[in-house]
Amino acid sequence: MSRCMLCPRKCGARRLENEIGMCHVGADIFVSRAAPHHFEEPPISGTNGSGTVFFAGCSLGCIFCQNKEISREAVGKRVSEEELGELFLSLSATGVHNLNLVTGTHYTDRIARVLARIKPQLKIPVVWNSSGYERPETLRLLEGLVDIYLPDFKYFSAALAKTCSGAADYKEVATAALLEMYRQVGAVRYDNNGMLQRGMVVRHLVLPGCREDTAAVLKALADILPVSDILLSLMRQYTPDFAPQTAPKHLLRRVTTFEYEQALLEAERLGFTGFTQAKDAASAAFTPDFHV
After folding, report:
1. Where are the alpha helices (DSSP H) in the chain?
2. 60, 141, 162, 208: which could join 131 in a potential S-S bond, CB 3.0 to 4.6 Å?
3. Predicted confidence band at 282 (pLDDT cuts at 50, 70, 90)?
4. Residue 77 is inside which H or E element, if any?
5. CA distances for 8 relative to 42, 69, 179, angstroms
6. Could you give the angle at the alpha carbon of 286 between the alpha carbons of 99 and 235, nearest 5°?
7. What is the pTM of this model?
8. pLDDT tens digit sequence for 24-50
């Protein structure tokens, strides 16, 4: 692709000339970490962990990002498509329950080529772990290659999305992306051990001072997808440690118990099932170490 239009930014970076796009990377693929990860949702992490591959760069760029160390620049190892395929297979051979591809939107075309080549050798599901800010046209490159979609649905308010991620169109873009993901994988399915094999887990990070927006996100999700077919992961892990001091004041604190419990009540009212987080999840200690 000479001019990159993979993500909703459609910045047109000249990949063949190694021009840096809004995702902070150029023509090369950078992997920041590849290892078993034990802090995903239970039917994804299981006992052996999820085989996570963290890609450098990000096309959304939230101001409070816990992984900003790698999302803002190409931190990690430069790999070819052939090396990436070998990495996927070697990680899958460690006994992990799935291959979990984290923030790969800006590499989708190349990841799809790699998966198409090695998929017959993989004996575990492939998870696409993303911000939800994706183009349906790009997601179609992954059809038949991704088994589990693990997207965020971050914001309803255009103003909040613009403030936090510079993406006032987030709700509209994410809605279209979620619909495409569901079209591809359908309802959740498990193996005999309760490990997820196919379907969608939609994550929503509860933000401090944004109770009304969370309620609107949950309502919008219930309006577009059958709540009985998907799982909701309602996250409490927001920490102000990564937000700049110039961020809105309400983002410079943690989520209160009242705010999180109100989100839980709304999710229950709408009929969602899925996963919750304890208060101690709001800690920088849960951020992966990208130097190992």
Report:
1. 42-45, 68-71, 81-92, 108-118, 136-139, 158-165, 170-185, 211-224, 257-269
2. 60
3. low
4. strand 77-79
5. 31, 22, 16
6. 80
7. 0.95
8. 999 999 999 999 999 999 999 999 999
